[in-house]
Amino acid sequence: MSSKPSRENIGGMPHSGYYREIPDEPDMFLCGVGRGTPGGEYLRRFWHPVAYESELGNVPLRVRALGEDLVVFRDGRGETGVLFLHCCHRNTSLEYGIVEERGLRCCYHGRLMDTDGRILEFPGEPNADRMREKTSQGAYPVHVFGGIVFVYMGPPDRKPVFPLYDRLTLPGVELVPGVRLPLDCNWIQLKENTLDPAHTAVLHVIPQLRGMDHFAGEFESFPEIVWTDTPGGLIYLAARRVDGNVWVRSAETLGATIHCISSIFENGRVAKRATPPFMTFWTLPVDDAHSINFFISHVSPGEPMPFDKRRALEVFGQYEDRPYDERQWIPGDHDAMVSQGPVNVHDAEFLGSMDRGVTMFRRFVRRGIEGVMRGEDPVGFYLDQAAVPPTFANDCVVPEVSIAGDPADGKVLAEHARRIAEAYLARPPMRDL
Ligand code: FES
Ligand SMILES: [Fe+2]
After folding, report:
1. Would you say residue 7 has pLDDT above 70?
2. Do residues 253 and 379 lie in contact, with contact meaning Cβ atoms separated by under 8 Å?
3. Which of 83, 109, 113, 135 to mutate to test the pocket of ligand 1 (most atoms within 8 A of CB)?
C-alpha cells in the first residue's frame, strides 16, 4: 500500500495528478464586490462606469454594478440618473419605465421619479405630499466624462471628486469613447492582466504567428520587467532591445479599477522621450463573477492609421466576439482571463518572478480593503482634484549606446528600466507632451 506524498513532496513529480490537491476556494475577502462585504465596501469608494452616453436613448438601460441591479436613463432636460432597478412602489422593473421631461415614470402605476430618486408624482394618491416625505427611489450620484456615465455607490458624506488625471485633459488629444468589453470573470483578473507584461511576448504574438496583424512584432522578445508603486497605484516598465535601441514600455493601474496602456503599435525603433496616452480603461465589477471594461481611446493628431482599423485592433480578443474554434486557434486576453475561472483560485496557482505585478496588485487591494475597514480612504480616492496624482504609462526609447553597461545583459536592461521609473516619478511624462 503506497502512502500519499505531502503537497510539498510532489514538487516536479511526473504524472502527479492523483496526488495533487485541487484548491477550489477563491479569496472572497479580496474578490467580493457585494454590499456589506469588505471588497464591496472598498470598491464603493470609487466612481464606476455603467454606460456609454451613446447607449442612452428613449428607453431606460438596465445595468448591474457591484452586485446591484440598476437602471440608467437621461431625461428630457438632459439630466442623467441611476436608480435602483425595482420601483419603490411594488417592485416592477424600471427598465420598462417611460423616459419623460422631468424624470422616469414607472410603467405600472405611474410614479414619476427624478434623477436623484425623489418621487415627483404619485398618480391617484390623495396623500402625495405626505408620501413624498416618507419614500424615495434608491438612487446614486452620477458623473459623465468622456462619453461614459459613472456612478458613485458609496457613503454620500465621503463622495470623492471624479479624478481628472493629467492624461485625460491634454490639449489637442481627442477622447473617443469605446465599446463595452464584457468578461465573465472577477474584476481582479482584468487588472492583474495589465500588470503582467510577460504575456505580451506570448499571447499577443500568437496572432502574428498565425498570420494575423496585431501588436507590433517587436513585442516578441521577453522583456526585463520592473514594477514600482506610484502615488496613484502601480506601474510596470518592460525593457527590450530593438535594433540598436532600448525600448521601455510601461502600463499602470490607478486606484483599484482604472488602467492605462501605451500604444500597442509602438515598435521601439525611433528614439523618443515620451509618447501621448493611448487607451484608458475603467473596469466595472458587475458582480463577483462578471466584469465590463469601459474605455476611451486617446487620439492624437497624426495617428499612424485610420481610426476604424486602429479600433478593430484595439478590441481584438478583448471580449467574446468570436466563435470558440477561432478563439482556440488565436486566443486573446479575454480567453486567457475568463478561462482562469469565474473567480480565479489563487491557492491553485504556482507563481514565478514574472508575476510580481500580480502579487503587488493583490497586496495593494488587500491594503486598501483593510484601510477602508479601519475607516481610512484608499489610494485612488480623492476629495479634492488638486490631490489627484500624475500618471505614467508611456514608451521611452533611447539608443543603446547611451545607456551604461552592456544592454545584452538583462541586469543592465532592468537597471535602465529602474532609472526610467525614477525619472518618471521625478518628472511625470505627461508634462513633456
Ligand atoms: S410598481 Fe411602480 S408605480 Fe407601482
Ligand atoms: Fe494583453
Report:
1. no
2. no
3. 109
113 lines ligand 1 (CB under 6 A): no
110 Cα nearest atom in ligand 1: 3
- Give the contacts of 34 (CB within 8 A, at least 6 positions apart): 40, 66, 67, 287, 288
Report whether pLDDT(2) > 60.
no
Average pLDDT over residues 167-193: 97
Considering the chain, tell me which residue range(s) the CATH 3.90.380.10 domain(s) occupy: 166-432
> What b-and-e string marks burial along 157-170, b requiring 16 or more CB atoms within 10 Å of the CB?
eeebebbebbbbee
> Alpha-carbon dihedral of residues 325, 326, 328, 332, nearest 10 degrees?
-150
The ranges of the chain annotated as CATH 2.102.10.10 are: 46-158
User: What span, in angstroms and rounded, lies between the C-alpha atoms of 78 and 62?
Assistant: 18
Tell me the CA–centroid distance for residue 187 and ligand 2, in Å: 15
At residue 426, does pLDDT exceed 60?
yes
**Average pLDDT rounded to a whole number, residues 129-144:** 97
The CATH topology of domain 46-158 is Rieske Iron-sulfur Protein (2.102.10)
Distance of CA 182 to CAs 103, 129, 178, 202, 433, Å? 29, 43, 12, 23, 33
- The CA distance from 114 to 102, in Å, is 6
Ligand 1 atom with least separation from CA of 111: 3
Give percent of the chain above pLDDT 90: 88
Q: Is there a contact between 336 and 199 (Cβ–Cβ < 8 Å)?
A: yes
Which pLDDT does position 5 carry in this prediction?
72
> DSSP character for 410?
H
Is the entire prediction scored with pTM above 0.85?
Answer: yes
- Please give the Cα distance from 119 to 359 (Å, whole number): 47
| 30 Cβ neighbours under 8 A, 6+ residues apart | 39, 188, 346, 362, 365, 366, 369
| Residue with CA nearest ligand 1 atom 3 | 109
Q: How far apart are CA 193 and CA 358, in angstroms?
A: 8
Handedness of CA 157, 55, 115, 128 (dihedral sign): negative
The three-state secondary structure class of 241 is: strand
Protein fold of 166-432: Naphthalene 1,2-dioxygenase Alpha Subunit; Chain A, domain 1 (3.90.380)
